[in-house]
Amino acid sequence: MAYKKRVDGRKVDELRPMEAKAGVIPNADGSAYFKIGNTVAYAAVYGPRELYPKFLQNPKTGIIRCFYNMMPFSGSGERIRPGGNRRSKEISLVMTNALAPVIDLSEFPNTVVDIFVELPQTDAGTRCAAISAVAIALADAGIPMKDMVSSVAVGQVDGTVVADLNYNEEAYPAIVSDIPVAMLHNSKQVTLLQMDGEISKKDLLVALEMAKIATEQVYAVQMKALKERFQ
What we know:
Blueprint: E1 18-22, E2 30-36, E3 39-50, E4 63-70, H1 86-99, E5 111-121, H2 126-141, E6 149-157, E7 160-163, H3 167-170, E8 176-184, E9 190-193, E10 196-197, H4 201-230
Parallel strand pairs: 4-5
Antiparallel strand pairs: 1-2, 2-3, 3-5, 6-7, 6-8, 8-9, 8-10
Helix pairs in contact: 1-2, 2-4
C-alpha cells in the first residue's frame, strides 16, 4: 500500500513544530536549545581558547571540535548505551564538516572552539537538530560566521517524498530513505548530504528542492531565537 497519509497527519512538506532559544547555558561562551517535534538538542560552545597539546595547533587559523551525545534514555527505540560510540563519533565528524565552511577562525590562530551537543529526547532527525542548535550557539558566542547553517531531513516513504521524517516513518515497513541535509541561507550551498535507504534520482531531486524550502523554515526559527536573545 502506497504511503498516502503521514502517520502524524502532516502534509508531505510540513515540518514538525519547532522552537529554539539562545543563551540557555550560563557558563558557556555560547549556547542554544533547539526542538523539532520530540527531538531536543542542547548545544554549548567554548572558545576560542588555546589548543593543547601544542602539536595540534594551526598557526594560520583556529579549529573546531564537535562532541555529539545522545543520553541513555533519550531514544524512541531501545535504550542507548552511555558513553562514546561509533555513531556519536561519526555524527561529530559530520557536524564538523557541515559547520566548517561558515566559521572563520583566521583571526584566532593556535586556538580551538569546542562544541558540545546533548540530546535528552529524540524522535529522528537528531543530527539535523544538533547542527541547527550549534549554529545558533556559535552566533550566540560571537564566533565569526560567513552564513547561517540550517539543517533538516527529507526523504521518501513507500514512494512518497516527505520532509522531516519522524521515528515511525523511518521504521515504516516499506522502502524508506532518510536524507539529512544542511544548507547555507544565502548561498544555498549544501554542507551536509547523507542518505540511508533507497530513492530514485527523480525523487532525490524533488527531495532536495523540498529541503531548500524546509531549511528556510528552520532558519526563521534560528533567527527568531537570536533576535530574542539580543533585542
